[in-house]
Amino acid sequence: MLNFPIPYAEELLYSTVARAGVRLGHTSPKQLLDEVFESRSVIATIDLPSHLATVSRWLPGEYTPEKLIYSHTLFPLYAPFISEGAMLESGVRAHYNWLE
């Protein structure tokens, strides 16, 4: 996808996707989800978004899914309150189950 915006420092990915919608002129949220995530069934969430591997393809190489998780989601705020066992149990181990 051309013209996908670069996330600002400490900007949530949700906001970056919203800026992409404005930049691309999409009036339909489903159309935006289809273009950004390549799926209309994705649920865009503010705190812990999914399909980060897909989004990282639209960004320069330094924006890996791991960087997106730690710099552009609320995961760093949740992590201290979640035991490692709970993270592993919930699918976080597989890159937080967000890389699909």
Write the layout of secondary structure elements.
Elements: H1 13-24, H2 29-37, H3 52-57, H4 65-72, H5 75-78, H6 84-89
Description of the structure:
This protein is mostly helical. Helix content is 45%, strand content 0%. It has helices at 13-24, 29-37, 52-57, 65-72, 75-78, 84-89.
List keywords for this structure.
disordered C terminus, 100 residues, globular, 6 helices
Explain briefly what this protein structure is:
With 100 residues, the protein is mainly alpha-helical.
The portion of residues forming beta strands comes to under 5%
Please state the average pLDDT score. Answer: 84
> Which bin fits the share of residues in helices?
40-55%
Shape: globular
Assembly classification: single chain
Q: DSSP helix count?
A: 6
Order of helices and strands: HHHHHH
Estimated radius of gyration? 14 Å
